[in-house]
Design a protein that fits this description.
By secondary structure, the chain is an alpha+beta fold. It has 2 domains: 420 residues, Growth Hormone, Chain: A (Up-down Bundle), CATH 1.20.1250.20; 55 residues. The protein has 21 helices and 4 strands. It is found in: Cell membrane.
Length: 497
């Protein structure tokens, strides 16, 4: 095993690349409302947003295939070069998304090219995580594996944090109009190429995992990782148990607490874009250290109980927490103290063109509401388009930060220990393949589909703003029961074979 200084070099090199891959993967979701306007027909904004969320989800759906392809490579040729390859693939795909012309320029080719590049992103991420987690675990001291692998776990949330930070910074520098209506939104995608170059330089200096190097020197590397992982009954049983007893529930908790929460406060609560993302950013800063706290705690009391408790809290508290978020932004019971109305162009100018009416209201608690109506200047049978934008009062903003932070705590409980848990289930020669598949099905399919399925459910007649939560609650509850009945809380300290 490496020295304490050596293990931190391993963690840093692995984490920097993984963080950049998550950044690349997340900026698509963080910019989904803008992407829906750029790459899809704008006749139906809801359909365009759902198409964008479906494209976002497609990147998750192909992650298991990436896990199979790159997991096999990782068990055949080594951890280092495999996740170096995934980094290049992810960075190149992200950079190219920033170059794709809009729907207005190339028509149907725009969504097709974006979908293709999104699929390549998903394949790359499918190979990244298993390699990074395995690499760190195979360097870590046996009794501190949960602690050291939890640093890799922070990179997923930090990747979201960095993506939001870059987006908000670029938005301020270039201006809101250029960022949303012009090409400013492309800059976060294009910047990724610089981050990838730095990470490649760091990873080129990494050494192979000592456990894998030992296997290779002894000639015990797997000849067929796929067959050994899924063709042997005992190992395949552990793959299924990892999926249905752990990663499936962990995935929906993660994506509900961070991504669906972000989508919910933007599209259901109508919180102003910059304020909504700053709320998410602050909550992430407050809670990210708990990935390490729960990872370290799992070394002492086991992985199972911590992960299942996180799922239970999500099942019990998601609906009341999301209802609180909704009520905080609800202005229907607040008293208006100032109201201002503007028309652009004025009704008597350019009649026959679209008229934009802006109504701004300030309420007695400091909340502000901006309503924009786009309607024909001459009365026609065309329904006006209306958008609302709520700017929360300071005290309400912090209430929302607190609620999001509580939900991200659930994420730290299920996600902090899971890398060590997965590593300990499988032998070294097939670990990359065996752990990657259940992880990416649980996260990529069950978790990654949360924003799309939950949003889609709320469009069904008879549903309300909370109806979409039944999907993650149901999946987490099922996983929790299976995990409680069949998972062991024992920590396996032997990962060498």
């Amino acid at each position: 095993m490496p020295s304490p200084k050596g293990i931190w070099k391993v963690i840093t090199a692995s984490s920097v690349g993984t963080l950049i891959e998550w950044y690349d993967f997340y900026i698509f979701g963080s910019l989904s409302t803008i992407i829906s306007q750029k790459f899809f027909p704008d006749a139906n904004p809801t359909a365009a947003l759902l198409s964008t969320l479906a494209t976002f989800a497609a990147g998750f759906v192909v992650r298991p295939f990436g896990a199979l392809v790159f997991g096999r490579l990782g068990d055949l040729i080594g951890r280092k070069y495999t996740f170096l390859l995934t980094l290049v693939l992810m960075g190149g795909s992200t950079f190219l998304i920033g170059l794709v012309p809009s729907y207005a320029t190339i028509g149907g080719w725009a969504p097709f090219l974006v979908l293709l590049l999104r699929l390549l992103q998903g394949l790359a991420l499918g190979g990244e995580y298993g390699g990074a987690a395995t690499y760190v675990a195979e360097h870590a001291p046996e009794n501190r594996r949960g602690f050291f692998t939890s640093w890799i776990q922070t990179t997923a949330t930090l990747g979201l944090f960095v993506s939001l930070g870059v987006i908000l910074t670029v938005r301020r520098i270039v201006g809101v109009e250029e960022f949303t209506a012009g090409d400013g939104w492309r800059i976060p995608f294009l910047l990724s190429i610089l981050l990838v170059i730095v990470s490649i330089f760091i990873r080129m200096k990494m050494q192979e995992s000592p456990l894998f190097a030992k296997l290779k020197s002894e000639g015990r590397v797997s000849k067929n990782p796929l067959k050994e992982s899924f063709g042997h009954r005992a190992n395949f049983k552990m793959v299924l148990l990892a999926l249905f007893g752990a990663t499936m529930g962990q995935g929906v908790i993660w994506y509900t607490s961070q991504f669906y929460a972000q989508s919910f406060i933007l599209t259901k609560c109508h919180v102003e874009y910059e304020q909504a993302n700053s709320i998410i950013l602050i909550a992430l800063v407050l809670t990210t250290p708990f990935f390490v706290v729960f990872g370290a705690l799992s070394d002492k009391i086991g992985r199972k109980n911590i992960m299942l408790l996180g799922m239970l809290l999500g099942v019990l508290l998601y609906r009341p927490i999301f209802q609180q978020l909704y009520e905080i932004a609800d202005v229907s019971k607040k008293a208006v103290v100032v109201e201002r109305r503007e028309s652009n162009p004025p009704p008597h100018v350019n009649s026959g063109f679209i008229q934009v009416v802006t109504i701004e209201k300030r309420f007695d608690d400091g909340t502000k509401l901006k309503t924009t109506l786009k309607e024909p200047a001459e009365k026609k049978s065309v329904a006006p388009m209306m958008t609302n934008e709520v700017r929360l009062a300071e005290k309400d903003k912090w209430k929302m930060v607190g609620l999001i932070a509580v939900m991200v705590l659930f994420v730290t409980m299920v996600y902090g220990p899971i890398a060590a848990f997965l590593v300990e289930l499988f032998p070294t020669q097939i670990r990359y393949t065996s752990m990657s598949l259940p992880y990416h099905i649980g996260n990529g399919v069950f978790g990654g589909l949360v924003p799309f399925i939950a949003t889609l459910i709320t469009t069904i007649p008879g549903t309300d703003h909370l109806s979409g939560l039944w999907y993650p609650i149901g999946v987490a509850a099922l996983c929790m029961v299976i995990g409680f009945l069949y998972l062991s809380n024992k920590i396996d300290t032997d990962v060498s074979d």
